[in-house]
Write a structure and sequence with these properties.
There is one protein chain. Helices cover 43% and strands 13% of the residues. It has 105 residues and is an alpha+beta fold. The chain has a domain of 56 residues. The longest helix is centred in the C-terminal third of the chain and has 21 residues. It is flat. The N and C termini lie far apart (41 Å). Bound molecules: protoporphyrin IX containing FE. The site of protoporphyrin IX containing FE has 10 residues, from helix 2.
Length: 105
């Protein structure tokens, strides 16, 4: 905690999320983690039509769980490739990633 910052400019401490911690021991992987999650989510949405197989309860009272973080209750969904081209692209990425991992390990 830096009292001079807190007292002179509390806005400087505003963050969109506290999940990565704060202060001296804050997570040094924050940027990496956020970018990795963004890329993964974007790729999933690019490659697949994601559809729930049952009605989802989205009410705040019953649709979410609370804990260290809040999240939606689990539900079943299907992931269907949006086209054969995208399906092939995912399979190619997967093969390339496996080959890289084999080389590294
Ligand atoms: C979504 C992903 C991640 C979350 C939610 C997360 C969260 C956290 C949290 C809450 C802390 C403790 C902060 C504190 O003590 O106040 C922490 C520490 C740390 N994280 Fe992450 N982290 C993530 C990803 C990463 C990644 C990708 C790396 C490395 C590439 C990483 C490396 C570290 C290290 C080295 C520390 C210890 C820092 C210290 O004690 O000085 N984290 N992380």
């Amino acid at each position: 905690m830096r009292p001079n910052v807190v007292n002179s400019n509390p806005e400087a401490l505003r963050r969109p999320t506290w999940i990565f911690g704060v202060g001296r021991r804050a997570c040094p992987g924050e940027q990496f983690g956020q970018q990795a999650l963004f890329i993964t989510t974007a790729k999933i949405l690019w490659a697949f039509d994601v559809a729930a197989t049952e009605p989802i309860d989205t009410s705040m009272e019953r649709g979410f769980f609370a804990g260290l973080v809040i999240g939606p209750e689990a539900f079943n969904a299907t992931y269907s490739p949006r086209s054969d081209l995208r399906r092939q692209a995912v399979l190619t990425d997967h093969r390339n990633a496996e080959a890289l991992l084999d080389e590294m390990l």
